[in-house]
């Protein structure tokens, strides 16, 4: 069966499963080394001085952005993490003093006491991506809705974080899908 015989949602689900399977097959040691290497590429991001960067708390076998976030903090950027809220994600400040609460899915989020921030740069987890900047998330639409809301109040740089093995030759884009501005993998940063 060709992809032209199925809906974009079905294609995305197949690609999501394939990419997540590839990611799950990576060794534990490789995942650690790849996550650490993100910080080695921090200067390739070329972020404006003092911008606010939203990261994420990794779940399952996602690439771990915490070494990168620490490198960004050392460069003077304010950090925040997403919190699932209605009608879309909000972002709370992340500092060394931040208290965390369980946020479901095995992840942590800053407590409600943390200041809510509007990020300039959104570092996003993903299941799969292609060379045009299209991404497949986990199917809940949290980031799509957050991006749409954040773009109402100004520019937003959307950067995916992933392992190279999550790249696919072609990811279908639907009208609600916003392409990423760049991708950072263990091999470095690519701007789309």
From TrEMBL:
Its cofactor is Mg(2+). GO terms for molecular function: 5-formyltetrahydrofolate cyclo-ligase activity. It catalyses: (6S)-5-formyl-5,6,7,8-tetrahydrofolate + ATP = (6R)-5,10-methenyltetrahydrofolate + ADP + phosphate. Signal peptide: none annotated. This is 5-formyltetrahydrofolate cyclo-ligase. The lineage of its organism: Bacteria, Pseudomonadati, Pseudomonadota, Alphaproteobacteria, Hyphomicrobiales. It comes from Roseibium algae. InterPro entries: FTHF_cligase, FTHF_cligase-like_sf, NagB/RpiA_transferase-like. PANTHER family: 5-FORMYLTETRAHYDROFOLATE CYCLO-LIGASE, ATPASE INHIBITOR/5-FORMYLTETRAHYDROFOLATE CYCLO-LIGASE. Belongs to the 5-formyltetrahydrofolate cyclo-ligase family. Keywords: ATP-binding, Ligase, Magnesium, Metal-binding, Nucleotide-binding. Its EC number is 6.3.3.2. The keyword RNA-binding does not apply. The keyword Magnesium applies.
